[in-house]
Amino acid sequence: MFFTLVKLIIGVSKMRNFSRRDFLKLSASALAVASVSTLLSGCVSNFSRDALSKVSFSHGVASGDANQQAVILWTRAIPVQAGVTQVNLAWQLSKDPSFKQLERSGYVSTSAERDFTVKVDVQQLMPDQRYYYRFVAADSDSMTGVTRTLATAGMTELKLAVFSCSNYPAGYFNVYREAARRNDVDAVIHLGDYIYEYAADGYATERAVEIGRTLATDNASEIITLDDYRKRYALYRTDAGLQQLHAAVPWYLVWDDHEITNDTWHSGAENHQPDSEGDFFERRSAAVRAYYEWLPIRPPMGEDSIQIYRSFNFGELLSLHLLDTRLIARDQQLAYKNYTDPQTGEFAAARYKEDISAERNLLGKAQLGWLTGQLQQSSAKWQLLGQQVLMSKMHIPAELLGTRDFSTLPAKLLALEEVKLRVLRTQQQGLEPDAEDLARVTRLMPYNLDAWDGYPREREQLYATARALNKPLLVIAGDTHNAWHSVLTDQHGQQVGVEFATPSVSSPGMEKYLKIEQEQAAEVASAFSTLINDLQWCNLHQRGFMLLSVTVQGVQCNWQFIDNILTEDYQVVAEHKAVYQA
Predict the structure, then answer these.
(1) Which of 106, 340, 347, 431 is least enclosed, having the fewest CB within 10 Å?
(2) Which residues, other chains included, contact 383 with Cβ-Cβ below 8 Å and sequence gap of 6+?
């Protein structure tokens, strides 16, 4: 079971003469082996290293879930000596990088029961303040991390870096490294697929041996148990770019499906077979526990709960609402194959229409009600929904959905683009387009039922709420491995917001599935934008991330794309900008 949050009220006078005996006594009673602690006040300025353990900080440091007066600090402290099951550390928080004047500090204990991960929830900090932090062991210090609390008011600009889908065997996390090199990023938002659950010969592993990104031999199977998930996080956190970005700024994270397993819903997943892989809920519990252990998150209902949705206010400029579209309420995804006769290929259109129009949950009533309350209470200029899957209507000509040979899709897309352009030119001339042409480009179906397109009724409920509250939505998404810019329109064609979707850190995009050649990528992306009514622009073939620059006047999204993930050498080779003014 998860460890309960331990609240420590540490007086300054008591801590200054804190002995090794005092430390061990406190560890055995109040702290036990828990590594999540909340420091309300106090400062350990003259600690003795004799009271601390010898450890390795090989997975770096991280901070996250910063608000106006608190922040989570994270590290992993691996005992140097074999057989040690518990370690004792100190930590320090300072306004200066030399740690000469400590703002907060304390002792913390962790153990094998938490995979030697450490989380400290530091409280009673000043708003809008940059802090430096580190962890201290008997004969070593961790790297120094930088974090920042949020402003209460007066914030005029904000820059957020947005990421999703980092697959270790697919390539190096150069995208993280690039963001870490910038000096203008205030925080990171990670929208899920921080790890992948597949085996060493599974998804996106084709070049893993060649590039030196293989899975560990004791973790090469698909991950199912708590030990499996912990080892996978440990491997991912060895990436230098990831460590650099975690140390550079605070992170705000939410999971998608691969932190558990592919296409997860509330009671199962596409990539979970109960007959051979056991109980789904046991697997989910193991995955969630490892996630909370390894990431700098303050779970709103504690580490025993899968409730992860939560909000943060960046002054009066922006409210960030991080949502869960996977574990809490998602009903099982619809699948086109279940409506198609395997013998005749006939599609059961009436049954599909009935099912897709039914009341089906993605957020669920409780989370949607919570979000409604957050939108209603927020006085911020911008309402940012950080969530996993595309919210916009991604409806493509229905004839494309029957394509079995994906290599033929680019040619079909380009041909249909010509048809759509011909229809538009004819209509602009005040003439009736050819009936067959018109039917081909107006008979539309959603291409991905795992996204919000598979839950349109609940999407309309959200849109209606935002419209009634007069709160235009700024939505960010991940999941697809590609970059998208779309307008959000309701069933009446009214715009209720905009969506910016980030490309992946390393997972392959549509260039792999559609077998798009580099020189053809731009025209295929243009065809998508022509054929999908709400889609303004997309990039289907490059890895990268998004930079959101937020002011009162507007939000600019700047997509950054790099040229290489097969080695640690790369360059930023392209960018695209879009501006939203509500």
Answers:
(1) 431
(2) 318, 319, 321, 375, 466, 471, 472, 473, 474
CA distances from 51 to 26, 27, 137 (A): 12, 11, 9
The DSSP secondary structure of 311-322, one letter per residue, reads EEEETTTEEEEE
Q: What is this structure's pTM?
A: 0.93
Q: Give the integer Cα–Cα distance in Å for 127 and 74.
A: 20
The pairing of beta strand 251-253 with beta strand 36-39: unpaired
Q: Which 8-state DSSP code applies to residue 494?
A: -
How far are the Cα atoms of 201, 220, 370, 437 from residue 367, in angstroms, in the given order?
A: 37, 36, 5, 43
pLDDT for res 25? 37
Q: Distance between CA atoms of 474 and 320, rounded to whole angstroms?
A: 10
Place of tokens 């929904």: 385
Residue 362 has a pLDDT of 98
CA R_g for the chain: 25
Residue with tokens 């989910």, as numbered in its chain = 284
Contact 535, 444 (CB under 8 A): no
Q: Are 104 and 132 in contact, with CB atoms under 8 Å apart?
A: no
Structural contact between residues 408 and 416, judged by C-beta atoms closer than 8 angstroms: no
CB contact at 8 A, 388 and 479? yes
User: Cα–chain-centroid distance for residue 130?
Assistant: 24
Q: pLDDT digits over 153-201, tens only?
A: 999 999 999 999 999 999 999 999 999 999 999 999 999 999 999 999 9
Question: In this structure, are residues 538 and 502 in contact, taking their beta carbons and an 8 Å threshold?
Answer: no
The answer to whether 524 and 509 have CB atoms below 8 angstroms apart is no
Count of Cβ atoms closer than 10 Å to residue 188 Cβ: 23
Instruction: Give me the pLDDT at residue 47, please.
Output: 74
Q: How far is CA 111 from CA 265, 275, 322, in A?
A: 32, 33, 30
Domains of the chain: 1-149 (2.60.40.380), 158-394+447-506+543-582 (3.60.21.70)
Q: What is the dihedral of CA 356, 512, 243, 52, to 10 degrees?
A: 70
Q: Count CA within 13 A, CB hemisphere, residue 12.
A: 7
Q: How far apart are CA 84 and CA 3, in angstroms?
A: 20
How distant, in Å, are the alpha carbons of 170, 210, 281 from that of 206? 8, 9, 31
**If the chain, 582 residues long, is cut into consecutive pieces of 10 residues, what is the mean pLDDT of each piece?**
28 35 38 44 67 97 98 98 96 96 95 98 98 97 98 96 98 98 97 98 97 97 98 98 98 98 98 98 98 98 97 98 98 96 91 97 98 98 98 97 85 96 97 97 97 98 98 98 98 97 97 88 96 98 98 98 98 98 86
Phi and psi dihedrals of 126, rounded to 5?
-85, 145
Specify the 3-state DSSP secondary structure of 356: helix
Strands 78-79 and 473-477, sheet pairing: unpaired
Q: 3-state DSSP call for residue 434?
A: coil
